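User: I'm putting together notes for a lab meeting next week and I want to include a structural view of one of the chains we've been expressing. I don't have a solved structure, so I'd like a prediction I can at least talk through. The sequence is below, exactly as it appears in our construct file.
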Amino acid sequence: MNRKFLLYASSRKSWALPYLIFAVIFVVVPLLLIIVYAFTNDGGHLTLENFEKFFKHQEAINTFIFSIGIAILTTLFCILLGYPAAWILSNSKLNRSKTLVILFILPMWVNILVRTLATVALFNFVSIPLGEGALIFGMVYNFIPFMIYPIYNTLQKMDRSYIDAAADLGANPMNVFLKVVLPLSMPGVMSGIMMVFMPTITTFAIAELLTLNNIKLFGTTIQENINNSMWNYGAALSLIMLLLIAATTLFNTKDNNGSNAGGGLW
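Assistant: Thanks for the context. Below is the predicted structure for the 266-residue chain, given as structure tokens.
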């Protein structure tokens, strides 16, 4: 008996058991609870009235669309600012390039609320009013490291022989970037988009602090319903958000598969 136990404990499958238990308790069970609450009413009966309430509530729909717009803007700004930074870091000839990368990633080690409160203090110090501009600035500031690192990681691992070959064949630097570097770095870009878009569209603390609660995002709507004990409607809103995130993830997976099928260059 002890021998069988030792053999099982030494196998690789046994090491996956703690992670499986963790996933079941903290991922699968909460998702199942969200689904159950979303499709039931206060009496526990199956219903679709929670979703009907959302589609009939114009303010909730407007908040949902506005949140998607803010998330798209934040993601675009993170790409425009993060890609050049990742490119510079990956091509840096300095011996301390890894130190520079750590300096970019360092804000991730600080709690997001602390960073947001610091942003509020900064805006108050320079007498800039809080609002939509401050919200986008705070979003970009908080999430741009999540864009820089995956792009940098992809560029760092890129086979430089492709770039040399394109240059030897007469391609100018712009064509080398557009035809070789950019397509090969797209997996990192897509990973960055996923890591920025999803938390941006669901956050609520940043919006509350940087707009003095004057601008409401969809995450705030979900929080308000949960805090007001409207569990069923809040679960329905959460499920709608989860479906949007799942659709984005599936799109990202299909896009990566398509690019891999084409060789990743064109």
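A couple of points you could mention at the meeting. The CA atoms of residues 19 and 55 lie 38 Å apart. Confidence is low (pLDDT under 50) at residues 260-266.

User: Perfect, that's what I needed.
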